[in-house]
């Protein structure tokens, strides 16, 4: 389970390493271009689990911490979908990765 340290928000945001690896690529790409955007996720699968949204901007410190020592192979289709959603009005909405029509991983739990 990876961790996203966002400014000084406590507790840190926990996200599985695979999802965090994909999210990192999209976030860094957007920030390199000087673009701000939001990232939203559900806290769990229960109907009343809640959700969170953060605003990502160059002026807000970010730190990506991974439990795994090796970076996973990235799913280009998922990266494209995340990057496209980052350009939309609602920003990135983390959802399970789909490979061949089936779910592979479950994203953030905060």
From TrEMBL:
InterPro entries: DUF7882. Residues 1-97 form the DUF7882 domain. The lineage of its organism: Bacteria, Bacillati, Actinomycetota, Actinomycetes, Micrococcales. It comes from Microbacterium marinilacus. This is DUF7882 domain-containing protein. Pfam families: DUF7882.
């Amino acid at each position: 389970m990876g961790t996203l340290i966002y400014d000084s928000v406590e507790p840190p945001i926990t996200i599985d390493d695979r999802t965090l690896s994909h999210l990192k690529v999209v976030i860094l790409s957007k920030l390199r271009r000087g673009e701000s955007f939001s990232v939203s996720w559900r806290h769990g699968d229960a109907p009343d689990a809640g959700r969170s949204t953060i605003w990502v901007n160059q002026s807000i410190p970010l730190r990506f911490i991974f439990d795994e020592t090796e970076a996973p192979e990235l799913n280009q289709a998922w990266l494209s979908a995340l990057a496209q959603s980052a350009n939309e009005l609602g920003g990135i909405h983390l959802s399970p990765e789909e490979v061949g029509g089936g779910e592979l991983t479950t994203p953030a739990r905060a």
